[in-house]
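Long-time lurker, first post. I've been practising inverse folding by hand and with some scripts of my own, and I keep getting stuck on stretches where the structure tokens seem ambiguous. Below is the full token string for one chain I'm working on. Before anyone asks, I'm not after the true native sequence, just a reasonable design that respects the backbone. If someone could post their per-position residues I'd love to compare against what I wrote down in my notebook.
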């Protein structure tokens, strides 16, 4: 990586930040202050000191060499060494049983899968864990609703039927307060393995999993493991004993809690003896540590669960589990008047969004088959999410979600298809062989702008991992695509004296777009 070579020239004691200038005329790297740097003509073309900065211009041949390496075996080996020997577990998607897969769960699924892909690309051993919400007092509510208002047998119900019954429970509970007590009683029965309660619960799970599998197939997502909260029920006693042995389990008004110095306490067991989500999550950490021994555990869940995650991480340290923990804490997708609520029936079903996106994709690519239409539609939905800082809230806006222009997935897919079209029109059949025998002489600004983007790709992948933000890769790809389209608009490529060197820029752009979109979980299309 060029930045690493530059750091060696600056010396071991150099600690200043090395940035890329936002204005290209100021070079490839900029360092605040006047900095001494050892000479290396193979790496550095020139150094300028302007307005309190040291601006460094990288040698053109070095830029070409770095571009040639991208995607090759040497480059792949170098980038895989970043995470070699390390294991990462990521908790993502985690839809709730008996609720449709809403647009709200899209963020966790998309961001989590992209982070998984990025870490895997960097050589980490990655384990994706879909922590399904299949336990808790909400199932007591659902059982009550099914028994009181279900118009058909559970086996015949769809996931929409289950969700509607859940909404109805909350509507009726506002008028009849005893319903909440009934729900708690049924959840207690479920915890005691009551036959009727368990049968209804299992049927709800089966209905839900069939629907989730359909959605994941549409999104092109495959998660390694899918353990529901119920999987950890028999593992909770060992956690309670460990908490007791460590002396961190306290009595409080009949309940059992863990106390913290700078946070509210976490409830482990309620005063009525039922277990909590927190206890099941601690059993989950114990299982992950004993099964996979990870160096890093990432939680890709909503920002409204930030306190919960901090309590889990702190309790884990108290119990002696010390991998690096990180919660991406993504922002919510909201209506203009507030966040979605399944209780009130205010959810947008992801299947509806996909259908609408497919309809829009047909308008911009009417001659394509359904497979390509689907790739464009899903790409639009995913990129709309991934291009944004995970921590920020998104206001749900149909026009922005479905935008097929500019800063969008289809724009990147179209640029990739354009690159392939140029390459296919050329009569140079062995481009790689031709490149080796060609002395490039890039002199145009648009050509150099592309060369100065290629080498940054590796940096951006590593930065995306360090910041737990696929948006870093998304933003880089948009910048690259814009530079290529500016280059394409200005110059002829096929049949010109500069054909080989311009085909090289085209081929490198296509390769980077393909790798980058793969990392984001977005399919490329060869023609649009």
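-- Answer (accepted) --
I ran through it position by position. Result:
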């Amino acid at each position: 990586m060029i930045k690493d070579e530059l750091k060696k020239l600056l010396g071991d004691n150099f600690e200043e930040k090395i940035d890329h200038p936002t204005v290209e005329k100021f070079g490839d790297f900029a360092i605040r202050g006047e900095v001494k740097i050892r000479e290396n003509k193979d790496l550095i073309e020139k150094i300028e000191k302007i307005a309190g900065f040291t601006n460094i211009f990288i040698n053109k041949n070095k830029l070409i060499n770095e571009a040639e390496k991208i995607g090759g075996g040497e480059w792949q080996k170098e980038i895989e060494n970043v995470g070699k020997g390390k294991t990462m577990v990521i908790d993502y998607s985690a839809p709730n049983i008996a609720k449709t897969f809403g647009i709200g769960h899209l963020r966790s699924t998309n961001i989590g899968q992209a982070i998984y892909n990025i870490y895997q690309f960097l050589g980490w051993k990655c384990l994706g864990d879909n922590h399904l919400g299949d336990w808790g007092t909400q199932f007591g509510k659902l059982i009550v609703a099914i028994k009181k208002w279900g118009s058909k047998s559970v086996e015949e119900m769809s996931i929409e039927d289950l969700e509607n019954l859940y909404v109805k429970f909350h509507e009726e509970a506002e008028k009849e307060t005893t319903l909440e007590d009934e729900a708690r009683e049924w959840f207690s029965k479920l915890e005691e393995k009551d036959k009727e309660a368990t049968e209804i619960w299992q049927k709800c799970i089966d209905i839900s999993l069939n629907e989730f599998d359909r959605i994941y197939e549409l999104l092109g997502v495959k998660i390694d493991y899918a353990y529901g909260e119920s999987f950890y029920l028999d593992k909770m006693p060992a956690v309670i004993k460990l908490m007791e042995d460590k002396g961190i389990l306290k009595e409080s008004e009949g309940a059992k809690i863990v106390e913290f110095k700078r946070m509210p306490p976490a409830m482990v067991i309620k005063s009525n003896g039922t277990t909590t989500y927190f206890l099941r999550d601690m059993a989950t950490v114990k299982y992950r540590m004993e099964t996979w021994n990870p160096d890093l555990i990432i939680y890709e869940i909503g920002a409204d669960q930030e306190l919960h995650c901090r309590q889990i991480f702190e309790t884990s340290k108290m119990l002696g589990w010390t991998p690096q923990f990180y919660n991406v804490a993504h922002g919510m997708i909201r209506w203009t008047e507030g966040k979605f609520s399944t209780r009130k029936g205010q959810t947008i079903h992801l299947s509806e969004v996909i259908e609408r996106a497919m309809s829009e994709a047909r308008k911009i690519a009417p001659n394509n088959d359904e497979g390509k239409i689907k790739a464009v539609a899903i790409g639009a939905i995913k990129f709309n999410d991934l291009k944004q800082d995970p921590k920020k809230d998104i206001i749900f806006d149909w026009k922005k979600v479905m935008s097929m222009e500019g800063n969008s997935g289809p724009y990147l897919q179209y640029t990739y298809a354009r690159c392939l079209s140029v390459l296919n029109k050329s009569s140079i059949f062995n481009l790689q062989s031709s490149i080796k025998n060609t002395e490039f002489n890039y002199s145009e600004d648009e050509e150099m702008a592309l060369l100065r983007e290629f080498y940054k790709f590796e940096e951006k992948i590593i930065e995306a991992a360090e910041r737990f933000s696929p948006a870093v890769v998304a933003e880089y790809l948009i910048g690259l695509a814009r530079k290529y389209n500016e280059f394409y608009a200005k110059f002829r490529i096929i049949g010109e004296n500069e054909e080989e060197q311009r085909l090289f820029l085209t081929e490198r752009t296509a390769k980077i777009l393909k790798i980058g979109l793969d990392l984001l979980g977005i399919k490329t299309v060869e023609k649009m």
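A couple of notes from the structure itself: The mean pLDDT is 90. The CA atoms of residues 259 and 265 lie 4 Å apart. Happy to go over any region you disagree with.
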